[in-house]
Design goal:
12% strand, five-stranded mixed beta sheet, 202 residues, alpha+beta
Length: 202
């Protein structure tokens, strides 16, 4: 029996992507457009798209929120330890420490060794005993696996994969591809706000 390829998200569909509320995010909760990003710290395509996401945050300001979800791929041996490192940074120091660790990991994708991750943790002023224990025990495994299960359920098995107000965009697309969807979603959202819907409920 030939293996069937996993179903891919329909780019014309709108998917419900549930959030726990404790995921790392940039941008306000009442942003009119939310991008949920499923990513992998060792994936070169994920690294390639990061400057695009940074530029989008600059261009859209408080109208845009980016929520991070971990989806370390099984053939990237350093991706799960890196996800643990980033989530441990968040546990110890909140969102700011997560994004600082995130930046260090993506800036050094070719060197995601245990030694380097410990060095980044020291540079961020983390509690090193707790940090080492988190990596030793795969402490954030449950949260990572929950996000991976969600990705598979949405058909987003590859990385990076984005859901922009529930609409899927796959891969390291050029910024124009993101803006086309964001602008469309912004127009819809602004119409709702003009009609009396509070921003937080768009």
């Amino acid at each position: 029996q030939p293996q069937q390829a996993p179903p891919r998200p329909d780019p014309n569909a709108v998917y419900r992507v549930p959030l726990q509320g404790n995921e790392p995010q940039k941008g306000p909760n009442d942003a009119l457009v939310t991008i949920v990003e499923f990513s992998d710290f060792e994936c070169p395509f994920c690294g390639r798209v990061e400057p695009t996401i940074t530029q989008l945050m600059r261009d859209y300001g408080n109208d845009l929120r980016v929520v991070w979800m971990n989806n370390p791929l099984p053939f990237h041996q350093n991706a799960t330890p890196a996800a643990n490192a980033a989530l441990e940074a968040m546990q110890q120091g909140g969102s700011a420490k997560f994004w600082a660790m995130h930046e260090k990991l993506f800036s050094n994708q070719q060197g995601l060794t245990r030694e380097n991750m410990e060095r980044y943790a020291q540079e961020l002023g983390l509690n090193m005993a707790q940090f080492r224990a988190a990596l030793d025990n795969n402490e954030h495994r449950a949260a990572i696996e929950q996000q991976q299960t969600l990705a598979r359920g949405l058909g987003a098995s590859g990385t990076p994969s984005f859901f922009i107000n529930g609409r899927n965009l796959r891969g390291a697309q050029p910024i124009e591809a993101f803006k086309a969807v964001i602008d469309e979603e912004l127009r819809k959202a602004r119409t709702l706000v003009q009609q009396g819907t509070p921003r937080a409920q768009v």
